[in-house]
């Protein structure tokens, strides 16, 4: 046993100075060493500590093995100083135990002397070398050349370094399966390589058991690991074509079909790159064929990708070779020397090995003749034609050929698509002529080009058709006059002499189109003018003296060649106070101003209604009545037409006697009979003379005061009602007698003051009437939409009309026309100049 000396050093105690003055103290301690992994039995005496004292001392031991890890391994007897070992110590964990010995006085346990001690642990070979991994795996290609590194194993030993116990070596314990073509080499560093050749068909994997063995003197310990080398199949077997299947025939002009299928055999692993076949076609001039590999069977499928022409050959001979996706290699062991690598014959295609002969076969594809369509020599042709060319004009000649050798080569020409039906084609010669006059401005002409599709149809079964396109460029002529874009414009008085744009267009192209010359015809001097008058748009300027109304102007528009057209242009002149368009002032326009605008309109209407109420109190209420021809009124001929009158609300009596006006259907006739020449009828404070022979007519339905139209007719009912109502009942008009019209006979006879309740109700109804006109589209009189009529030539001169003379003593023309019946309202609107009454404007149409 190798004994390591104990390192002993004195530690002075509390009475060190006194002790030194008296005597030298001596410790007697042996050298101690604990063998790693002592088998026991325990406890056993490790040694004894002796101190030279003439008096008794007590021993104490502290440190590693006692009260520090590893605890409970050592113990000292207090009285004798013997050291006992109670268990083994692992060298790999504790190479030395550090302790402290102390001698104490038994009286007070004070320390007499103490010292430090190190107990060495002696290593034994108790740890085998261990590998880092229990299993090592690697995949290599079958074509890997000998001497190549495969993998590296690594082990370690926990015994004391640089001793035989921790020194080890590697060794291959076994190889499975055993092969004469390969041998594995394991270096001292754990690197694994091989010499010879892998053969996947012999062994797809190699399993090696590798050991690590230490060099212990007493016993040698070892451990092992497993290394597996997977061999991926390489292309060491060439594919061989074993046969073919399929008809080997294909019809001309047919493609996408597979007339042939090649079968191969390969000994390499199925579905590997070394097994999958790759085909190559030789002799396919024009690229009519392709060959693809079936992923399941490895067959080569030959497909036609471009139509074949029988006339170019009835047979197609192709050479097809086959190889694998992985490059081919070969490895054969020739000699196995004892030292160094073996002598092998290794060939690899991808690194310039000797020429590899791939398997090749020859196939013949037969092309079957079918009926070919005639082919046009030129499939897209262009021609030029003038727009005014006469019918029958020759345009172009097209030519087609049919390469068939049979009777089906005969064909005729036809028009395939002629959208306007303008063209003819000679079935035999292909001459194209016009059958109708062409029009460059037709919807079938795009950018001046008319497209005609032509067919050549043979007489085969079934008939085959060839197609060509003729693009006809049409030369424009001046066959269209310029036209106005719109025939109605709105002119706002508030714009002053700002021009209103009028534009024109011409279907003809340059130089037969715009810019245009615009000209106003008729007597428009100092009333209307055009500024500018040349261009695609002209400016219509109104003179400030022209009043509001609808005007019809004659406009002459000429193109650059002088070709012109004359058109009626309706111009509506208005104030544009509500909207910018004179013709669109309807409820939609007003509602667009929102709630605030409607409120302002309502306030304005209410103020106008108050003004009208004041006007009502000063007017006369008419009671229509049957009268005879003896009235002393103004008579005019019945065919005189006048406009409808404005609002006429006369005064109504405050207290009329109901019995004077209450007529019914039953007693109307009696009333007429009893109304004699000497009697009189009282109405309020007014009296109607019986001698006037006027018969009063009243409505029996409601006996109420009614209004129709624009409140221009008012009827009196029973005074007991004292109210006004809106109604669409039949209005009363003055009656006619022997072709004369009663005008003002009763105008002053039935006036009275109306009370405030009646005025209030009248104003309310009037306001409702005005508001209703805004809610109903196109309800206002000014919403006039002109109607277009056909051109009828120049209008008659106003000088041809008869002059209508109305004497001044019968009142003004305006007053007479206002009192005519409603059947003359339209005529009056055509005669009167613009007249403003209240809030309504009446327009007069003028033709100049």
Characteristics of this structure?
Immunoglobulin-like; elongated; 6 domains; cell adhesion; mainly beta; five-stranded mixed β-sheet; 848 residues
Furnish the topology, listing elements before pairings.
Elements: E1 9-11, H1 16-22, E2 27-29, E3 33-35, E4 44-51, E5 58-63, E6 74-76, E7 82-85, E8 96-104, E9 111-122, E10 130-131, E11 135-141, E12 149-152, E13 155-156, E14 168-176, E15 182-186, E16 191-196, E17 205-214, E18 222-232, E19 240-245, E20 249-251, E21 260-265, E22 277-282, E23 289-293, E24 300-304, E25 315-324, E26 329-335, E27 343-348, E28 359-368, E29 375-376, E30 380-386, E31 394-397, E32 400-401, E33 411-417, E34 423-425, E35 431-434, E36 449-458, E37 465-475, E38 483-484, E39 488-492, E40 500-505, E41 516-521, E42 528-530, E43 534-535, E44 537-542, E45 549-558, E46 564-574, H2 587-591, H3 594-616, E47 625-626, H4 658-661, H5 668-674, E48 680-683, E49 686-689, E50 695-696, E51 705-708, E52 713-714, E53 724-726, E54 736-737, E55 740-741, H6 756-775, H7 813-818, H8 825-831, E56 835-837, E57 840-842, E58 844-847
Parallel strand pairs: 3-9, 11-18, 20-28, 30-37, 39-46, 45-58, 51-53
Antiparallel strand pairs: 1-9, 2-4, 4-7, 5-8, 6-7, 8-9, 10-13, 12-16, 14-17, 15-16, 17-18, 19-21, 21-24, 22-25, 23-24, 25-28, 26-27, 29-32, 31-35, 33-36, 34-35, 36-37, 38-40, 40-44, 41-43, 41-45, 42-44, 45-46, 47-50, 48-49, 51-52, 54-55, 56-57
Helix pairs in contact: 3-6
């Amino acid at each position: 046993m190798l004994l390591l000396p104990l390192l002993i050093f004195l530690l002075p105690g509390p009475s060190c100075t006194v002790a030194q003055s008296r005597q030298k103290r001596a410790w007697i301690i042996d050298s101690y060493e604990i063998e790693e992994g002592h088998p026991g039995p325990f406890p056993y005496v490790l040694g004894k500590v002796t101190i030279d004292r003439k008096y008794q001392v007590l021993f104490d031991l502290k440190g590693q093995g006692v009260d520090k890890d590893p605890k409970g391994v050592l113990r000292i007897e207090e009285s004798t100083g013997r050291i006992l070992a109670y268990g083994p110590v692992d060298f790999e964990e504790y190479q030395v135990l550090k302790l402290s010995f102390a001698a104490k006085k038994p009286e007070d346990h004070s320390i007499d002397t103490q010292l430090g001690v190190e107990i060495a642990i002696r290593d034994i070979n108790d740890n085998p070398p261990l590998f880092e991994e229990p299993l090592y795996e690697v995949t290599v290609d079958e074509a890997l050349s000998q001497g190549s590194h495969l993998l590296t194993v690594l082990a370690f030993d926990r015994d004391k370094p640089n001793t035989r116990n921790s020194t080890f070596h590697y060794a291959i314990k076994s190889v499975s399966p055993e092969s004469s073509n390969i041998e594995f080499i394991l270096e001292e560093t754990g690197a694994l390589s091989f010499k010879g050749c892998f053969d996947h068909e012999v062994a797809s994997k190699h399993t090696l058991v590798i050991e690590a063995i230490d060099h212990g003197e007493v016993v040698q310990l070892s451990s092992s690991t497993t290394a597996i080398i997977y061999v991926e199949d390489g292309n060491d077997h060439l594919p061989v074509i074993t046969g073919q299947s399929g008809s080997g025939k294909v019809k001309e002009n047919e493609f996408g079909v597979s007339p042939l299928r090649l079968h191969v055999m390969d000994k390499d692993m199925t579905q590997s790159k070394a097994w999958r076949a790759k085909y190559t076609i030789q002799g396919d001039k024009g690229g009519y064929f392709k060959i693809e590999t079936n992923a399941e069977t490895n067959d080569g499928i030959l497909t036609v990708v471009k139509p074949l022409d029988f006339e170019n050959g009835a047979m197609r001979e192709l050479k097809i070779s086959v190889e694998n996706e992985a490059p081919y290699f070969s490895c054969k062991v020739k000699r196995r020397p004892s030292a160094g690598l073996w002598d092998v014959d290794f060939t690899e295609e991808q690194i310039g090995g000797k020429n590899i002969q791939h398997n090749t076969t020859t196939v013949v594809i037969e092309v079957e003749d079918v009926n070919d369509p005639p082919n046009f020599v030129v499939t897209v042709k262009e021609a030029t034609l003038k727009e005014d060319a006469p019918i029958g004009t020759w345009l172009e000649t097209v030519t087609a050929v049919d390469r068939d050798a049979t009777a089906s080569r005969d064909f005729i020409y036809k028009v395939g698509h002629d959208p306007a039906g303008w063209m003819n084609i000679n079935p035999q010669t292909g001459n194209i002529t016009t059958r109708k006059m062409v029009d460059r401005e037709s919807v079938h002409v795009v950018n001046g080009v008319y497209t005609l599709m032509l067919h050549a149809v043979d007489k085969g079964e079934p008939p085959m058709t060839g197609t060509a396109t003729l693009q006809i460029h049409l030369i424009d002529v001046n066959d269209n006059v310029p036209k106005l874009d719109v025939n109605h414009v709105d002119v706002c008085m508030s714009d002053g002499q700002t021009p209103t744009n009028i534009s024109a267009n011409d279907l003809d192209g340059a130089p037969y189109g715009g810019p245009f010359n615009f000209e106003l015809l008729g007597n428009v001097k100092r009333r209307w003018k055009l500024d500018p008058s040349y261009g695609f748009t002209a400016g219509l300027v109104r003179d400030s003296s022209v009043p509001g109304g609808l005007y019809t102007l004659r406009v002459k528009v000429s193109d650059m060649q002088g070709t012109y057209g004359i058109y009626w242009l309706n111009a509506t002149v208005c104030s544009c106070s509500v909207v910018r368009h004179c013709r669109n002032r309807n409820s939609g326009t007003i509602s667009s101003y929102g709630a605030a605008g409607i409120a302002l309109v309502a306030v304005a209407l209410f103020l106008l209604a108050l003004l009208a109420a004041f006007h009502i109190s000063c007017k006369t209420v008419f009671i229509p009545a049957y009268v005879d021809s003896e009235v002393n009124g103004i008579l005019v001929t019945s065919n005189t037409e006048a406009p409808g009158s404005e609002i006429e609300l006369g005064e109504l009596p405050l207290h009329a006697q109901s019995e004077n006006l209450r007529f019914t259907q039953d007693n109307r006739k009696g009333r007429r009979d009893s109304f004699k020449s000497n009697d009189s009828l009282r109405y309020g404070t007014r009296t109607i003379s019986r001698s006037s022979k006027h018969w009063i007519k009243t409505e029996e339905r409601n006996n109420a005061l009614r209004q129709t139209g624009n409140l221009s007719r008012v009827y009196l009912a029973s005074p007991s009602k004292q109210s006004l109502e809106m109604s669409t009942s039949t209005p009363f008009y003055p009656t006619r007698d022997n072709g004369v019209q009663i005008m003002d006979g009763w105008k002053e006879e039935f006036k009275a003051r109306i009370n405030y309740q009646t005025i209030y109700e009248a104003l309310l109804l009037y306001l409702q009437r005005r508001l209703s006109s805004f809610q109903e589209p196109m309800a206002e009189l000014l919403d006039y939409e002109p109607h277009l009529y056909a051109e009828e030539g120049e209008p008659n001169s106003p000088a041809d009309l008869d002059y209508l003379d109305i004497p001044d003593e019968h009142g003004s023309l305006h007053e007479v026309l206002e009192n005519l019946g409603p059947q003359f309202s339209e005529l009056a609107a055509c005669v009167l100049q613009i007249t403003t009454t209240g809030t309504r404007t009446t327009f007069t149409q003028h033709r100049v």
